[in-house]
């Protein structure tokens, strides 16, 4: 068993030299076997073991015995030992979650606090092959796709599972062979929790009636699913990089043609990926929401919009698919029409003066005074703030630049960007007030009529 | 229900105009609902329904009642009716398979015979959403990867399943609403077969203890798995086309670098695909065989070979991965050294005469006499039969051609190809005896020494 654990540690890069490893130690066979394995391996591989025991406050005297037992073991092995007393039932009721979930939250909270004090490291838990089988069966029964079938992983975040591919039988044998003392967690013996029901009723029923090797069969399913999911995720990540046109904190714009060329299963996976990239979560998303998004992005009706959980909206704009998150602070925006002569916008504390001049000499260009080719202007003039997707041709450039990138280059803070007035006509941005003018409206050798615009902040 | 079935028919292209559709009609609710649905849809879509009933010979009087009932229904609806009496228990014992498998073989054999008489068509079976759930659970319990989780398909080969996405509850409702008479297959009521055990014990247990919507949850798993598998298979098919260097009836040669650049899950899927392409089956192949092949093709040790089921061997040759099937007739092969002057090879009933000539005039080129530039020959001369991968530069050509393709062009039968003598030197094929010589050894303006070779068959 030790050699398997050592191979796992190497293959999945679970522990590196100098790591702090907090072991969740209940005192039962699984965690005791884990403790002894890591204790042996520690002699070869230089890392620090810390044991952590949680008394969940539900088994009275029994729990106290476990607590004392684990403390005693650690003292004998000279392993740093930490323990905590909680009331998982009470905590669950307070937070409106099941006692199981409450126990989990409290345990990992305790482990992470310990890690924080140690300056970081790993949490080693004693999930084994049987736990994996139980997890798969529970997920299958509750409803899952192949992503759920990969089950628990040897490593996920700061949690490591060094004995994940070892069965309960093998653990029992190891415990017996090495004469390791353990306690019995009696809560495991009653089918009150779903997991216990799976362990004590469902799996024995399947073993008796269908397949005595069900644990192995489910393990293989988890491993092949894991490989398939890994590939599909990598594939989607590569495709995402090709099809993303813009990604911000609160918005993703996708090339509709590239998205449309993928197969249905990949499209659904990509949609979940978009949501995850925006929000870090799929909370509240059901299959139905993914189907709605898929329909929207397949029909490609410009302007149509759907509302989604997590404050997201999805819409189509020509060949672009846009998923946006409601901004925590939403700037209202403004748009005012400009006429010749004096204009005063009180909201903006801003005055504009527009004059047609025919005297080509004596230009007094300045930050607050610019000259434009009047005949290049199409339609009315407006002062407004930026809209999503605005582009601009800076003076001296040929191609257009995104306003967003222009602002970034000019190091304008994010919260100010929505308030900078833009002078626009019916087609284009002419002048970013306080910054540059557009190359498209500049005076050239063919200019016959010149528009001079001056502005002034009134405060 | 009829509209759902009609949509299935369109979406999955189950039935086209003029099709012959043989319905497997047990007389139970599922197949009776299928019959009535298709009977209605037939009025819109022009196709031919034929009913087929199998009396499996295990339920005596009851089975006879079902047989008469289905015949009567079809007579009333004016649907052509065919029936057969078999003994599935006896047949199963004879063939060493379970009674369930025997019943299946006999049923589909009967349906296919009917189709043959009708000149082709489809077999419609009444598998529904509950059957799909049962199939998934059985596969999960027996052990499967995600390929098994896609479950049964709406269409697979000549079999169509028009009510696959309809639950047993919906079927019962349809039967009741439309006042359709059915019989009850009592063999479904006893948990003697695995499937009945799943239906009557396992699913009710899960519905009661874990998820009352387990049928739906498993249906969604089958649908998402199906999409993922479809994508993975398409991906592998595309990659296969890029990495296959040669594919014959009994051999596949793969570019090792391209294979090596894929992820592990894809590699395993590709290996199964190679085997399927060679043999049409994965019978006898376990995960262990795939792992062995994967290791071989990862280590890339030239010359190492492993034996596999179905008479396959896998080996590595430099950057090529080769999977070969044992030929039913394996020709032993030959190789003889040639010297100047007379040579006689008794085994081949073949005489050769080699002479150096300095008289450039009076060439008497013939099928049995050729002239070569002696200085172009490297090393010794041999007579041997072809080896796998042999190439040849036919007279007048610049590039080389595979000997195999040359033989195909010359319309030489497969069983003779291994026996045609080839004149070779240490590097190349010089002359395919009875056919052409190599461009590389021909006499040209720089030739100073000419080798004349004549041959004669002694029988």
Care to describe what's here?
The structure is a homodimer of 459-residue chains. Chain A is elongated and about 105 Å long. With 459 residues, chain A is α+β, with helices and mostly antiparallel strands. Chain A has three domains: 2-127 and 153-211, Rossmann fold (3-Layer(aba) Sandwich), CATH 3.40.50; 249-325, Uridine Diphospho-n-acetylenolpyruvylglucosamine Reductase, domain 3; 335-457, Phenylalanyl-tRNA Synthetase, Chain B, domain 3 (3-Layer(bba) Sandwich), CATH 3.50.40.10. Chain A is 42% helix and 21% strand. The model of chain A has no long low-confidence stretch (mean pLDDT 89). In chain A, helix 3 links the parallel strand 2 and strand 3 (81-85). The first copy, chain A, has a six-stranded mixed sheet with strand order 3-2-1-4-6-5, sandwiched between helices. Chains A and B meet through helix 6, helix 9, helix 10 and helix 12 of A and helix 6, helix 9, helix 10 and helix 12 of B.
Which features would summarize this protein structure in a list?
homodimer; 459 residues; alpha+beta; Rossmann fold; Uridine Diphospho-n-acetylenolpyruvylglucosamine Reductase, domain 3; Phenylalanyl-tRNA Synthetase, Chain B, domain 3; 3 domains; six-stranded mixed sheet; five-stranded antiparallel sheet; 15 helices
């Amino acid at each position: 068993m030790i050699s398997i654990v050592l191979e796992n540690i190497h293959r999945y890069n679970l522990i590196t030299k100098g790591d702090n490893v907090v072991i969740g130690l209940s005192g039962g066979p699984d965690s005791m076997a884990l403790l002894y394995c890591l204790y042996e391996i520690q002699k070869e591989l230089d890392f620090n073991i810390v044991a952590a025991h949680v008394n969940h406050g539900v088994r009275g005297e029994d729990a106290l015995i476990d607590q004392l037992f684990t403390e005693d073991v650690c003292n004998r092995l000279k392993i740093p030992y930490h323990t905590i007393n909680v009331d998982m039932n009470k905590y669950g009721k307070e937070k409106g979650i099941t006692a199981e979930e409450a126990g989990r939250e409290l345990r990992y909270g305790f482990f992470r606090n310990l890690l924080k004090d140690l300056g970081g490291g790993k949490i080693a838990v004693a999930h084994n092959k049987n736990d994996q089988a139980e997890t798969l069966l529970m997920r299958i029964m509750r409803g899952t796709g192949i992503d759920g079938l990969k089950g628990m992983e040897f490593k996920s975040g700061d949690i490591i599972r060094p004995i994940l591919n070892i069965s309960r039988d093998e653990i029992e044998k190891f415990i017996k062979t090495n004469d390791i003392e353990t306690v019995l967690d009696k809560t495991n013996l009653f089918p009150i929790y779903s997991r216990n029901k799976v362990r004590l009723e469902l799996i024995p029923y399947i073993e008796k009636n269908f397949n005595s090797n069900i644990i192995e069969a489910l393990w293989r399913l988890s491993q092949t699913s894991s490989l398939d999911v890994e590939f599909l995720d990598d594939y989607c990540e590569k495709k995402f990089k090709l099809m993303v046109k813009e990604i911000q904190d609160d918005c993703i714009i996708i090339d509709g043609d590239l998205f449309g060329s993928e197969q249905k299963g990949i499209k659904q996976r990509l949609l979940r990926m978009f949501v995850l990239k925006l929000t870090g979560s799929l909370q509240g998303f059901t299959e139905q929401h993914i189907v709605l998004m898929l329909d929207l992005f397949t029909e490609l009706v410009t302007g149509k919009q759907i509302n989604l959980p997590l404050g997201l909206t999805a819409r189509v704009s020509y060949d672009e698919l846009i998923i946006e998150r409601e901004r925590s602070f939403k700037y209202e925006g403004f748009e005012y029409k400009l006429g010749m002569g004096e204009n005063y916008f009180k909201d903006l504390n801003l005055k504009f003066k527009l004059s047609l001049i025919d005297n080509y000499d004596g230009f007094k260009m300045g930050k607050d005074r610019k000259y434009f080719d009047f005949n290049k202007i199409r339609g009315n003039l407006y002062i407004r703030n930026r809209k999503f997707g605005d582009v601009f041709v800076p003076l001296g450039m040929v191609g257009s630049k995104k306003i967003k990138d222009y602002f970034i280059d000019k190091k304008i803070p994010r919260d100010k960007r929505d308030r900078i007035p833009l002078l626009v006509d019916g087609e284009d941005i002419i002048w970013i007030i306080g910054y540059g003018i557009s190359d498209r409206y500049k005076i050239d050798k063919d200019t016959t009529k010149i528009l001079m615009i001056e502005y002034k902040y009134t405060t």
